[in-house]
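User: Some background: our group keeps a shared notebook of sequences we're curious about, and every so often someone picks one and asks for a predicted structure to add to the entry. Today it's my turn. The entry only has the sequence so far, pasted here. Could you supply the structure so I can complete it?
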Amino acid sequence: MGLNAPNFIGIRLSPQFQDVSLELKSALLYRFNVPFKHPLKIKNIELHQREGLILVLTDTSGHVGLGEISPLIGFSHETMETAIYKTTMLVDRMINFGALIAQPNAGRNTGWSDRTAPSVVHFGVETALLSLLANARNISMGAMLYGSSSTKIPINGLIQSSLSEWVFEAESLVSKGYRTIKIKVGQINSVLEARGIQDIRGSVGPDIRLRLDANRSWDLETAIEFGRAVKDLDIEYIEEPTIHPEELPRFYDACSVPFAFDETLHRILDPTLSFASYTGLKALVLKPSLIGCTARFVALVNQAREQNIMPVISSSFESDVGLAALAQLAASITGDKIAVGLDTRSTLAAGTAKTPATIQNGWMPVKTLTTSDLDLTHCELIYHS
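Assistant: Of course. Here's the predicted structure to add to the notebook entry:
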């Protein structure tokens, strides 16, 4: 986006939205609790349910926007209680502020993200505001930022099963139309996992893209050993194979397997940081809820584009409301060109929308949700203003 793009609460909008303004009338905040189909293990923590918040904002013209605030245990800075407190304080402040108006860009963002630490709350509140603006114009939320949007996005199929089921699950995903598959590694012996990746490649053939995610599981020596074992398998990238991210260029030099940043992005204070020194960096796996606010997220997308790095939008096990927002962003940022990591709704036994987005032939339709789409069965109203 150009320097003349309008700035709305610190978010740079597409240039055609120079006249954007809104005044909030009311807000509803729901707390949801939905079970996982099977316990989810993250960082040695076993999760049996996904908790979060759904924010419903209404402006004085009756337009509505939805946002999700869902701290992820082990990754987010906030607890649920902290998120509730920050959300209600921020929403009260916006309602009492009066009209929010887009300002000409002054070379620096002027949103609350400049004055406080990045937070899952910021991204959730900001997406609620953006979706309200978009709904008022009958366009996608992503179009508010980037000016255009595709109607569907390619999804990478996710394998999280035990090693003995990898090949079967990979074949099943390919039969369902997925052209990109992501496999979680770093769970057991790395030599056995490398053989499992070899078996998957032999089974699905050369035309399916394979991505790996190690979640910083290995020391450098183990990561290099694994990388050398899979280097001839045309791996698109592996996410953070080493415990220490500064060792990743050495990993690439030793085995020539491209890598991606994921967890590292959640701790970068300056989103304009150059990645040029990271030889072998292929992708930024962007989880907006964990990055913390829309301005930081957009800055990282811009960095990726400028440095010929793939921006890959990914979820943090959000419910339907959060996934719908991420899908709209992906549809405007990468469109139908890059498979994104939004195949996490299948891990939940219930959701926050009456009709979840379905993935067909490896593609997800881009949906805009309104209050009539919400399923509040697993929700409790905890705040209204």
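Suggested note for the entry: The longest helix spans residues 80-97. Confidence is low (pLDDT under 50) at residues 1-5, 106-115.
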